[in-house]
Design brief:
Number of strands: 2
Radius of gyration: 22 Å
Helix content: 55-70%
Shape: globular
Structural class: mainly alpha
Amino acid sequence: MVLPHLLLAAVPGLSIPLAEWQVTAGYAVFAVSYFVFALGKLPGMKIDRPGMAIIGAVLMVAFRIVPAAEALRFIDFGTLVLLFSMMLVVGYLHLAGFFEWITEQIITRLKPRHLLPTVIFITGVLSAFFVNDIICLAMVPFTLLATRRMGLKPLPYLLAVATSANIGSVATITGNPQNMLIGSFSGLTYRYFIWRLGPVALIGLLLDWLIIRQMFGNDHVPEEAEGIKAVAPHVSLRELRKPAIVIVLVLAGFIAGVPPAMMAAIGAALMLITRTRNPRLVYDEVDWGLLVFFVGLFLIVGGAENSGLTRYLFEIADRFNLQNVGIFTAVTAVLSNLVSNVPAVMLLKSLVPAFRDPRTGWLVLAMASTLAGNLTITGSVANLIVVERAHGEVHIGFWDYTRVGIPVTLVTLAVGWAWLAWVR
């Protein structure tokens, strides 16, 4: 590839053309950054994804690929506000015992044969409306306790938590970070999103249950076994009253069409108005590294676009017909497993507005980047949370996960592709 001596920025409004060395530097920073995103950290050093995002962003500004005076306009603050606010809301619910209470109410009334579908559908439904990573944090300890009390092998149920958290989160804008990003860039309403992708999540959860049940068989104790008693410490309903009211208002606002970032911010502000809860405990629930990662990623991708990356992506899109739902699904799924789903979405987001049907393009991007996370144990943060939380009691090996993840991913992606190709 021959680089021009001078290249005008791909992003409208950039006042300074880039010299050849800046174009080369922009591509180099982008390539190294995405290499680290793919591996998780830089070999031989302790530079993780958020750290690399900061380094890459600083280099883009230092090389004047992204002018310092214009850097802020590359950052989508709507996405950051939505992500931060949902972390606060979900963190407050977690501290109040909301997820423990829901789990206790349901699991304590179960027979062993009902545990698997219940774990799958409860995890999936909660993940649809709250950040799926937090749901995994709440569900793993209760799944371990439930299987221990019932005399069940915990592995299939832990795999059910991980896979169903990813599948359920595909349904809404607030289900996971990449959906929040897509919701902000696409302008799709919460209602439209859930109407189009909700069926994919529901069918996916059903298929997840059938696949895991088929692979592990009827692995449960005799029919006369009792359900679990006293699964969780008693949770005060009085403490749950305020968070329950706030979350109902937030979800109602989402459905009513209030911009998700605004509604989530209102919910977070209401949660922080308290006389009893130390706000620092709520702040500790926020994944600050993820927020930093997003900020750095905005600037890295912005710099790559200024270096001409968008133009080459358009050429690739035309050559391989990425507007085809099936092809775009496959490309998104592969890229999401190579570099992780959020960087993949950031890279592909510039292509979708130019599609003949951009709404379907955004939905395919959300669906494929999310469901692809079930392929391997490192495919999503939710998977890693399940593995780490269960590590003290259960070892989940790479093959233990992959033998379930491969069929679940392929089948759910096929369903998502077929559904979106039909409803478009």
